[in-house]
Amino acid sequence: MDVLAVPPKREEGWYLSLMAPNTKGPKFAWLDPSRLYCNSQALSDCVKDLLKPFQNETIDLVAGIDAMGFILGSAVATTLGKGFLAIRKAGHLCVETHTQDYSDYSGREKVMEVRVDVLKPGLRVLLVDQWIETGGTMRAAIKLVENQGATVVGIAAVAIENSEGGKWLKENYKYSHCIPKELQSQIDSQYMEFFKNFSV
Ligand SMILES: O=P(O)(O)OC[C@H]1O[C@H](OP(=O)(O)OP(=O)(O)O)[C@H](O)[C@@H]1O
Ligand SMILES: Nc1ncnc2[nH]cnc12
């Protein structure tokens, strides 16, 4: 599919087939959703889908996780008319931060951080990331928000895999993702049928 094309009828999750499969091997995530952000209709439909379950919620601030969560998170924030807070991989912020250790799908030990001067008790935060695989990254971000007394209204990502950590997040937080029910098993087996026909 032409990356900028918009189909005449936009079925649920139509834009997911714009995602590109991993061609570089096991050190990398198994697919790259970022290609769908190149299509403005796809990005806007994706953001709308992510916001649907939160229509009746009060959200004061959107927080996005470094790095790809910044793109989706800021699109969500702009659509909502709210501000955006960057939760960063450690080592970049030149201001005082709180830090949180975690590990993710790569199995590596990592640290993320957030500035200390924004989150406070009573603030209602929607957390956005590109993808949830083991859930380690999202769980660390939740801790950073909650440890400062702010409330996590919910979590949003293009996909939430039904890993142990993904299921835990879904059981404990309000959530949204973009995967139609009939495609969730492909997400969980980390192989999408459209990969067969994928061409650049
Ligand atoms: O559920 P988990 O197993 O913790 O993995 C999810 C995280 O991994 C990916 O980011 P990645 O660290 O690959 O970095 P990027 O956003 O900089 O591409 C993804 O966007 C999440 O942030
Ligand atoms: N972008 C991504 N695609 C697939 N699996 C992932 N795991 C973490 N990030 C991922």
Automatic annotation (TrEMBL):
Its main location: cytoplasm. Residues 55-179 form the Phosphoribosyltransferase domain. One of its GO terms (biological process) is purine ribonucleoside salvage. GO terms for molecular function: adenine phosphoribosyltransferase activity. This is adenine phosphoribosyltransferase. SUPFAM superfamilies: PRTase-like (SSF53271). It comes from Danio rerio (Zebrafish). Its EC number is 2.4.2.7. It holds the Pfam family Pribosyltran. It catalyses: AMP + diphosphate = 5-phospho-alpha-D-ribose 1-diphosphate + adenine.
